[in-house]
User: Fold this.
Amino acid sequence: MSISVVEKFLSRPATGGENAQTDLIFILRGSDDEVALKGALVASTPINYDGLRRKTWHVEQVGNELWEGTVRYAPQDEVHSDVGTIKLSVDTTGGTTHITQSLETVHKYAPPGKTPPDFKGAIGVTHDNVEGVDIILPVFKFTATKVFAPAGLPDLGALYDLTGKVNSGTFSVSDTVTGMTISLDECECLFNGAKIGEPRSDGNIEISYDFAASPNVTGLTVGDIVGIDKKGWEYLWVRYADVDDNAANVLVKRPIAAYVEKVYDLGGFGGLGL
Assistant:
């Protein structure tokens, strides 16, 4: 059922003078979804009224699917249009990942007269498995928030389609206030999705874009396997097999192959509207 918005008979109480204001009061029916009701209220009222600017709005429930909404108009503040401005926020708090290979085996110990098996950096090796360990790795996450005029909003279908994709070319975004710039090479940036805010009192809309970054790397080494190249959001995994360790005279599990997998599709981030 659609939401109906009807102005009350006793609407538009007004105050003149330096602190002039006017309230438009409405009855809303057809829903108990507060967010949807606020959206319907804003959509049903003009940005400007009688020389005043829409400043605040709220809804209050008075019955089952029956609400009262008030939109307040007041003098327009000095206008500094911020359409097109972008603000960046960055989060580098660590994330947890599971690894099966160490960067380096620092020490190996065995009983007197014995040689400790060499697992070539494999962690937590048992008779049947390589258990690995959970560690903290740095994660580079950032949010870009841009102000749009209603007529300039990006295509919502493009935002949906690009969610969960990595950049097919170099992607750069700059904070228009601080000048801070984030620039990432192909495959280093993952788009996690966007959040579209409600229309502000000036009618403009903010969209927040969430991203995560992972660097491209080359020349990785896993055990005796060298020269591994991995793009940022590709996935590296290792195959282990039983190998004779002649020095320790035991059968051990060692890396015998490394695989780099593509797990995210590429996308052209130009469709984001940033």
Summary: The chain has two helices and 20 strands.
